[in-house]
Amino acid sequence: MFRQKAISSAFRHYASAAAAASKGGPQPRASVPDYGLFASRLAKARATILEGKPLALAQKILYAHLHDVSKMTSAPVPGETYLKLSPDRVAMQDASAQMAILQFMLSGMNQTAVPTSIHCDHLVEAYEGADLDVARSWQTSREIYEFLQAASEKYGIAFWRPGSGIIHQLVLENYAAPGTLMLGTDSHTPNAGGLGMLAIGVGGADAVDAMAAIPWELKAPRVLGVHLRGSLHRWGSPKDVILELAGKLTVRGGTGYIVEYFGQGVESLSCTGMATICNMGAEVGATTSMFPYTDSMARYLAATKRADIADAA
């Protein structure tokens, strides 16, 4: 009887908290990236430090996000040079967002410098099913959720309440955009590479750098190209691609690399299939993984009400 009353009470609180969380609603889906700005930044880097060197797509995106190329005196050396970058977006899960928000408060800023979202998924323990588990999370983590929601309202951060979904899937459906750079406090942040985004998993302190307009530092990664030929067998799935690669690279073979897929085989993969491959790239230690822009990405953007981004990309 006591347990039933506790769960019932939790449901009532969850319902009221959910209603409160949805009043302002999450931030709108990602706006159209400033591709013109990216192109001009890359052109400046090519003219000054890159000396016309050929670049992989991942490198083009990275160098289009250099914080101040005028302060660089030579071309970055992969595996050695530290890049100072200006990310376009930050996504945080509820466990790491707590300390990140406290650190951001010390900046004295009234709003985050880049669009930021908080996703309450890590503190929900899978035990008895979605409804009961989410209700229980409001019992055990109520103070955390209320703090994160209040901070989100204060600093213009999108707050995705418990039960709204998994962080990397919500990013893919709402915020990912081709050619952009995002930091996420989750190891499977690279999932967004399935939409042509350079999405890198980081710790909370790194996320705060971007939120507070502090250049984010990254040792220039090498690029590992994966040439996909032909198309998947009808009994094959995108997961088979990354499982084959993981078998070759093992858990450390991708460390210090961005895995970039290219070739005819890319065109036969769905956007969500490519996201699965990028998601599991974390298992080989890669900095992140990504695909070039394809028709399936355009269709996915249109299906998720972001046709304007598809047109611009």
Description:
This protein is α/β, with parallel strands linked by helices. The chain contains 12 helices and 10 strands. Strands 4-3-2-5-6 form a 5-stranded parallel beta sheet, with helices on both faces.
At a glance:
It contains twelve helices and ten strands. The protein is an alpha/beta fold and 313 residues long.
Helices and strands, with pairings:
Layout: H1 2-21, H2 35-50, H3 57-63, E1 82-85, E2 89-93, H4 94-105, E3 116-119, H5 130-140, H6 142-155, E4 158-160, H7 167-174, E5 181-184, E6 198-201, H8 204-211, E7 216-219, E8 222-227, H9 238-249, E9 257-262, H10 271-279, E10 288-290, H11 295-303, H12 307-312
Parallel strand pairs: 2-3, 2-5, 3-4, 5-6, 8-9, 9-10
Antiparallel strand pairs: 1-7
Helix pairs in contact: 1-5, 4-6, 4-8, 9-10
Features:
disordered N terminus; 5-stranded parallel beta sheet; 10 strands; globular; 3-stranded parallel beta sheet; 12 helices; 313 residues; alpha/beta
What's the shape? Answer: globular
Treating each run of at least 4 consecutive H or I residues as one helix, how many helices?
12
- Please list the strands of the largest sheet in the order they lie side by side: 4-3-2-5-6
User: How many strand segments?
Assistant: 10
Structural class: alpha/beta
Distance between the termini: 57 Å
Approximate helicity band: 40-55%
Largest sheet: 5 strands, parallel
Proportion of residues in β-strands: 5-15%
Helix/strand order, N-terminal first:
HHHEEHEHHEHEEHEEHEHEHH
Overall mean pLDDT score?
90
